[in-house]
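One-letter codes give the sequence; the fold follows as tokens. Both lines appear below.
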Amino acid sequence: MAPSAPSINSTMSSRITTPRPSSYRYKSEKRGMTYNIMLVGQSGLGRRTFLNTLCEREVIPPSEAPNPDSANVADPMKFDTYEVNLEEEGTRICLTVIDTPGFGDGLDNTSCFKQLQDYIEAQFDEVLVEESRIKRNRKYRDHRIHVLIYFIAPTGHSLRELDIESIRRLGEYVNIVPVIGRADSLTVDELATFKQNIMRDIEYYKLPVYNFCWDETDGEALKENRDIMDFIPFSVVTCDEVLDNEYGSVRVRRYPWGTIEIDDESQCDFALLRYIMLNSHIADMINYTEDVLYENYRTKKLEVGGFAENDEEAAEGGDDSSENGDEKAA
């Protein structure tokens, strides 16, 4: 297990000065907060090291060397699930991470879009079925995806068709946070220009990435959220070594010419992204998934199924008279 990283709160002091109290977090301190993240991006963009660095431990071991005889054949996309128990500022987080190896590695990636959409919708459907039960399972585990971290290749130009189509199809169902994988392959000027080009594409194609300013009634957090929006897409450099210096242990990525301290906010956005994902905005991500994304999906699903609002009210009115009979039939 890697040594502890420097305090995230101390590194974020120049960006976020006011702690954001969250009743959701406080209520979850003892029982643990269920939180689900999906990682999507082509192979080679650092999803494995990102997850290990995010959790400050080895969650995904190094992959085996590919077989040279089949190296030219792209593996189909699959869903790998990892469960990690974390503790952030006294709050237990039951984190489930769904990785998607094989995404975008083929010549025709149409099936990848459908697989991702079907997987996310299936988690909504599970909740919809559970809500319709007369006797609900108190120990039901919510598997809805609260955040999808989408890794963009550091081409230095703009979004690719793969990126545009993925975000366009999935943004209706999940909070998409775009990040630039392997951002250390770009110079400072190239990275700044690349970010501007990506944001220009997001605005031009009206891509539904997560809007940190969705709750404009929270005036205390609105300024902070506007500042965070300026960093989208987040530039990510992940850790492959921990060094000890006069100030303590430092997580770095080593190169022949030197090192990058990944928790140094002047060198990359990883510290800010981790603080957002596992601390300040975790309740916002969960609430937006449950109150907006899921409710929109639920409404459409019931309307398509013939359950209009009047029919639902009529069904609710008959619940009392038929409850006993339903329980016996069950």
In short: The radius of gyration is 22 Å. The chain has a mean pLDDT of 82. The first strand starts at residue 33 and ends at 40.
